[in-house]
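Below is how a single chain appears once it has passed through the pipeline. First comes the sequence as given, then the structure the pipeline wrote out for it. We keep one example in the README because the format questions we get most often are answered faster by looking than by reading.
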Amino acid sequence: MRTPNLLPPSRTRVVTGWGLLVLSAGIFLGLAWHGLSLEARTGTLARQPMPRGAPAPVAVQAFGPPDPAEVEQVEAARSILARLAVPWRDLILGLKDSQPMELALTAIRPSADLTHLEIVARTSTYLAGQTFVNRLAANGQFSEVRLRRERRLTSAEAGSAPWEITVEARWGSTR
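Resulting structure:
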């Protein structure tokens, strides 16, 4: 059940309006007071004169050997940036052109030094895997393509694709 409103509708709006006005004025005055007191504190410090003949303050930082944790973080950041610098769009389009219908790509991993690319795929026939390797070699995106590993999956792992192949490709155009 709703509680009855004791004030008529026009008075309720007036009281609400005045309440919001007083609240916003209080917030505004509080912020202004804080800003003025902050300005007064910083202004007095900035107005202090420097003694005559005193040298200007200079910030000096001594550099020593780098911290091993920082070096590790920088190396990790460089590795991430290098992986982002891989021409992914062109690579995916090239792989799509070379991919037979019976083959599904499961992983694409660039090497740490970005000279090689490891491609893992599942296929329903061994012949489809060989066709993929031959098409990649003829594609022209890679200077060297080789089948590094092929493996027949167990029935529990396989599903509809009983073969898993791993292809290693070296960056560089042959065209």
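The helical segments are 9-46, 68-84, 88-98, 126-139, 155-158.

See the next section for the split statistics.
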